[in-house]
Design brief:
This protein has about 240 residues and is an alpha+beta fold. The chain is about 45% helix and about 25% strand. It has a six-stranded antiparallel sheet with strand order 1-2-9-4-7-10, covered by helices on one side. Strand 1 and strand 2 form a beta hairpin. The longest helix has 19 residues. The radius of gyration is 18 Å and the shape is globular.
């Protein structure tokens, strides 16, 4: 695996895999998968599709991704407003049941590049609702466990717990609890990539109980073990 971008501020994460075996998982990002060599298979909504060359997977969509003898470009984008959905609509992309799949797609490289450029040039991450943005900033800036988080957020934005939970998922695509785990994972990976900190210290400093807790959360959200990323410690230019 090669890491090309891991930008927490912009919410853009770009990788390349020669082979990938991602177990069933879901994450708070929109994922674009482009095969530059070979094909891959994707299982989602109880259905498996083989010989794919391109896929878009919406946030919070459970899926399993497998490739052999295949080179994959992966672009993961945090999108909390309508810029990317409007781009998809304009380009005739329908995320039916959370996925857009192609076994033959002549424009795949161009589309992948256009989505990457859009993510780099536009702010896809800021929600239109300022209350949800305030919640995200609070989660990112404070170490707090989920049991205390909802109450803290509700009092800050003057919403009931249930209304806040509904509004947050509507704008961000996942529950507050899952976003909290995602935030910890991003911090852990970013710290490991940019410092000499070992895995155990990264786990503790990012708010996980121990290394096993980090590994389990990592698999649930990204479908692979932490070693997949940690063996690719150097960001490529």
């Amino acid at each position: 695996m090669t890491i090309f971008d891991f930008d927490i501020k912009k919410g853009i994460y770009r990788f390349e895999f020669n082979d990938l075996n991602a177990e069933s998982h879901s994450h708070p990002v929109t994922e674009i998968v482009n095969a530059t060599h070979g094909t891959f298979s994707l299982e989602s909504n109880g259905q498996g599709i083989e010989n794919l060359v391109f896929a878009i997977i919406d946030a919070n969509t459970q899926h399993k991704l497998v490739s052999q003898n295949c080179t994959l470009q992966l672009l993961m984008v945090e999108t909390h407003n309508l810029i990317l959905p409007n781009f998809f609509k304009k380009n005739g992309i329908d995320l039916k049941n959370g996925v857009f799949l192609k076994t033959d797609f002549a424009q795949k490289n161009r589309l992948f590049s256009k989505i990457k450029t859009l993510a780099l040039e536009k702010d896809l991450k800021t929600p239109t609702d300022k209350r949800i943005q305030e919640c995200i900033e609070f989660i990112q800036g404070n170490e707090i466990e989920y049991t205390d988080l909802i109450t803290s957020l509700s009092s800050r934005v003057f919403l009931s717990d249930s209304r806040l939970s509904h509004l947050f998922k509507e704008h961000v695509g996942v529950s507050i609890k899952k976003y909290l785990v995602w935030n910890k994972l991003r911090q852990a990976i970013n710290q490991y990539l940019n410092t000499d900190t070992n895995l155990t210290d990264v786990s503790l400093q990012s708010g996980f109980f121990d290394q096993a807790h980090l590994s389990n959360s990592f698999k649930n959200v990204l479908g692979v073990s932490p070693s997949t990323v940690y063996n690719s410690r150097i960001l490529q230019s």
